[in-house]
UniProtKB/TrEMBL annotation:
Keywords: Membrane, Transmembrane, Transmembrane helix. It holds the Pfam family PTR2. GO terms for cellular component: membrane. It is found in: Membrane. It is a multi-pass membrane protein. The gene is NRT1.4. GO terms for molecular function: transmembrane transporter activity. This is Nitrate transporter 1.4.
């Protein structure tokens, strides 16, 4: 009888927990079902974010500065929650369950016995029901005379937005990782497919964003926001069904514990041993040779963390699987934490870019609402100018430089716009008055910051992934995404400070007036330009000190060579 056998993936299982059969699991079919979730997530998040400031000001009657802060706080929270999603995926749920749960939160969740709506479903209803928004303004009244949304109306809106932020955070932390899980690194053909997956992943992000800022924004302005948000909700529910349909085809990686806990173990052990003297010979530090994973050579940087690997007689607390990691950590584990620490200077100097980016979906959209946006009889939605964010791919320093140029251009354009506003006498009139100035003068600032986004996003992601330990790729990706979160939060902080400091004059308007024709948005953009220049210099100083981690790369290569035998055993 002919021997029958099949190839399996060494570090993956199928939905039943058995070794994953290469012929029946993984590959492009599985990856495509996962990418559908990503394109719908981008459609929902960006479709809401880029045009939200006009809804907050025009419908909910919030002041300009407060509207901008609501948008940036929403986006910042969404990216910050990626850390929570990554922690849950690595420690408890796994990537598959994390994606399914958080996608449902973002789309529509029917809670038992309450039939309440969440995420985009709730947002669609909050923009549809008249009771959940204030009455329209009297055309003869100024913006300050409009009735502001009450506590209940804002509460429902906030609940909707932050449920969406929760869903986004859970999804973004797991989608790219679960997608790459469908390809076997030890198979050369699938390894090449995995590289192509990243290209398609970014393409789907751009496609979802492009559709959101064009078609979806147009539907919001011309048909109705509730219809646009309903499209987001329905598309996400369809994507969830497609995602669940691939349950039997996916490859699943077992959870190996959260890198956050591993980092904390090193910090706690080093703190406990802070009064001990480090041995002169680093080889006396603890390293478990019985562990089969890659070992990283000791380095002299951040010696305070080396104390986590000091072995003290009489204080060894044994467990069933060896040394207690909260008391003593392997040198390799300490070096992994050092590698993460080395990422922090670049991490800190890229936050400012996302602060600049935040202005493009807030104040720059406000600028567009006051300008002539018509091409013939067609009027371009103000939020659709963000289409120029879809840019190119180079290096981080170029992205920071382009964002600085974009802010400088934005300051000059705003000076011109204000001079036009004063010349036609609309300064004291309504904020929605259309100026005799084409909206296309805003394109350069959108283009430069948008090109900077494409450049810096991929540059950051590559930097954080390639320079992080093999077992901490998820947390390093989360660390990268926190630069987006902190960038949006810094924007909210700057707006609040500038609003407070500059609103002490006679009119109490300041740089960020409710009617931007009465403010000095150009001065605010000028301030951001100066901050961007300072940040660029700081980044270049940090980047010049970055050294390649060649030793760890060599160790990983040796580990892969050692695994070749396992590949041969799977063939027949």
């Amino acid at each position: 009888m002919e021997k029958m056998c099949w190839a399996t993936v060494a570090d993956a299982v199928d939905y039943k927990g058995f070794p994953a059969d290469k012929s029946k699991t993984g590959g492009w079919v599985s990856a495509a079902l996962i990418l559908v979730i990503e394109i719908c997530e981008r459609l929902s998040t960006m479709g809401i974010a880029v045009n939200l400031v006009t809804y907050l000001g025009g419908t909910m009657h919030l002041p300009t500065a407060e509207s901008a802060n609501v948008v940036t706080d929403f986006m910042g929270t969404a990216f910050l929650l990626c850390l929570l999603g990554g922690f849950l995926a690595d420690s408890f749920l796994g990537r598959y369950k994390t994606i399914a749960i958080f996608a449902a939160v973002q789309a529509l969740v029917i809670l038992p016995f309450t039939a309440s709506l969440a995420g985009t479903g709730m947002l669609a209803i909050s923009t549809w029901l008249p009771q959940l928004r204030p009455p329209r303004c009297n055309p003869a009244a100024s913006i300050t005379g409009c009735q502001r949304a009450n506590g209940l109306q804002m509460g429902v809106l906030y609940l909707s937005l932050y449920l969406i932020a929760l869903g986004t955070g859970g999804l973004k932390s797991s989608i790219s990782g679960f997608g790459t899980d469908q390809f076997d690194d030890k198979d050369e053909r699938e390894k090449a497919q995995k590289s192509s997956f990243f290209h398609r992943f970014f393409f789907f992000i751009s496609t979802g964003t492009l559709f959101a800022v064009t078609v979806l924004v147009y539907i919001q302005d011309e048909v109705g926001r509730s219809w646009a948000y309903a499209i987001c909700s329905i598309s996400m529910m369809v994507a969830i069904l497609l995602f669940l349909s691939g349950t039997k085809r996916y490859r699943y990686k077992k959870t190996s514990g959260s890198p956050i806990v591993q980092i904390l173990q090193v910090v706690v052990a080093a703190t406990r041993n802070r009064k001990l003297e480090l041995p002169v010979d680093p080889s006396q530090l603890f390293e478990d040779d019985s562990v089969g994973s890659t070992k990283i050579p000791h380095t002299d940087q951040f010696r305070c963390l080396d104390k986590a690997a000091i072995m003290v007689e009489g204080e060894h607390v044994k467990r069933m699987d060896g040394m207690n990691p909260w008391r003593v950590c392997r040198v390799t584990r300490v070096e992994e934490v050092k590698m993460m620490v080395r990422l922090l200077p670049v991490w800190a100097t890229t936050i400012m870019f996302w602060t600049t980016y935040a202005q493009m979906i807030t104040f720059s959209v406000e600028q567009a609402t006051t300008m002539n946006r018509k091409i013939g009889t067609f009027q371009i939605p103000a939020g659709s100018l963000t289409v120029f964010f879809v840019g190119a791919i180079l290096k981080i320093s170029i992205g920071l430089a382009l964002s600085t140029i974009g802010m400088a251009i934005a300051a000059f354009v705003e000076m011109k716009r204000l001079s036009v506003a004063r010349s036609v006498g609309t300064v004291a009139r309504h904020a929605d008055s259309t100026l005799p100035m084409s909206v296309f003068v805003l394109i350069p600032q959108f283009f430069f910051v948008g090109a900077g986004e494409g450049i810096i996003y991929t540059g950051q992601l590559d930097f954080f992934i390639t320079r992080s330990p093999k077992g901490m790729k998820t947390i390093s990706t989360g660390l990268f995404l926190t630069t987006l979160a902190l960038g949006f939060f810094v924007s909210s902080f700057l707006v609040s400070i500038v609003k407070s400091v500059t609103s002490t004059g006679k009119d109490g308007q300041g740089w960020l007036a409710d009617n931007i024709n009465n403010g000095r948005l150009d001065c605010f953009y000028g301030l951001l330009t100066v901050l961007c220049l300072i940040n660029l210099v700081a980044y270049l100083v940090c980047a010049a000190r970055v050294k390649p981690v060649q030793a760890y790369k060599d160790a990983e290569e040796m580990d892969e060579i050692g695994d070749l035998g396992a590949i041969g055993e799977e063939k027949c």
